[in-house]
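Researcher: Let's do a round of design. I'm pasting the structure tokens now; please hold your answer until I've finished.
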């Protein structure tokens, strides 16, 4: 389950999170805590 958010700035601080750009969208991937998986755009 990937949530869609306006801003990913707050999610960068969460431990284990990576900000990734794929196909013109910005994703936050967190393998440690998958509930923070989100996308923007």
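Researcher: That's everything. Go ahead.
Model: Designed sequence:
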């Amino acid at each position: 389950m990937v949530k869609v958010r306006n801003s990913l700035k707050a999610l960068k601080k969460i431990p284990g999170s990576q900000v990734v750009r794929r196909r013109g969208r910005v994703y936050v991937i967190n393998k440690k805590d998958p509930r923070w998986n989100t996308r923007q755009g």
